[in-house]
Amino acid sequence: MSDNNEKDFSSLRQLLALKRHEVPPPGYFDDFSGQVIARIKAGEARGESPLSERLAGEAPWMLRFMRFFEAKPAMVGSMAAALFVILLGGIFYSGSDSTDSIVLSQTPEAGTSNGSTLATGPTSPQLMAAAGAANAGGLAVTTNYSLQPVSSMFSSQPNPFTQPVSFTGGN
Amino acid sequence: MNMAEPAALPESGPSAAQLVENDLIRRARTGDLEAYDDLVKRYQERIYATIYHMTSNHEDASDLAQDSFIKAYQALKSFKGGSSFYTWLYRIAVNKTINFLKQRKNRNHMSLNDLDFNAEHDPDLVALVSENTPRRAAGLSELQEKLNAALLKLSEHHRLVVILHDVQGQSHEEIAKVMNCNIGTVRSRLFYARQQLQGFLADYLKST
Q1: Fold of domain B117-204
Q2: I need a labelling partner for B76 at 20 to 30 A (CA). Which of A118, B103, B115, B139 fits?
Q3: Which residues, numbered 43 to 82 in chain B, qualify as contacts with chain A under a Cβ-Cβ cut-off of 8 Å?
Q4: Could you read off the pLDDT of B3-30 as tens digits, one per residue?
Q5: Neighbours of B172 (CB within 10 A)
Q6: CATH class of B16-103
Q7: End-to-end CA distance of chain B
Q8: Is the per-residue pLDDT at A29 higher than 90?
Q9: If you average pLDDT over each of A70-84, A130-144, A153-167, B10-24, which comes out highest?
Q10: What does pTM read for this prediction?
């Protein structure tokens, strides 16, 4: 069968022999190895190695993963779309959790304490923006402790920031 | 394997040329660029030719051949000697070329080399052009263009098998090593690729 195949394709093989006569410009190979060596030296001088080389040595699994996507634009597109959906889902769920916490915190007690704090605390633009966002039902995050509810001034624990006052007069 | 150890040798024992090559490899591994220069000179024409026949583009072949030798130098320490240096180098060049062609799919631009003087006197080609070709007006340049265009229609793996076997004269076993597949796969790919080429080039082949 192999011989028959060779006979069947003998004419084609004659034609393919033409490829052997295709040659690069004269003198092309005279400096070929010199160019290769020069590029190697230049790369060594920069102290660089291609990303693929570094990955092959340090994280071959990453290189295989990247090669899996080579020349597969549809696969890359679907992967990116999937990641985007996951990201959107994450944002949506985190947003709904924050809304719940805001609703729960809007008890009369919490409202009072917030109001009192805003009334007595500093009125910086950051605080006003945070308060505005909270009132609009949006998500406001701050680390400013002046927005936290203050402890009662009438608690049994002594307040370290207050001085006892005596009204007992002299005479 | 120790870096200083030479590559694995055939069971029949190393020839003088193999010993010299093993010494060059050992020196190149230690950073001796003169030794690597000699290795490049040994294989530059075959590597370039394979890539050129795969791409049908001189500029691309030139870049890819240089890149292959540079990559081989950088990866020389990972060369275990499980195959010959020639096969190992071929694998690097072939993988690089196939990746390049896949990325550039359907955007093939031919930049063909000139035919050498001997082409006009090759008896097979003379007969093909002047006597047996239905289109007798076809000259060698037209044949060259049609042949390259037909080769570019093949898949990369089928093209590679035809190039390595029918153009470069490698055996099925050698091709199987380069392509990292079994000999049966090489044979079936070669048969299929030839069939396809025969269909593409029917007008330029003998009718018998």
Answers
A1: Arc Repressor Mutant, subunit A (1.10.10)
A2: B103
A3: 44-45, 48, 52-53, 58, 62, 65-66, 69-71, 73-75
A4: 334 444 445 567 888 889 999 999 999 9
A5: 17
A6: mainly alpha
A7: 56
A8: yes
A9: A70-84
A10: 0.63
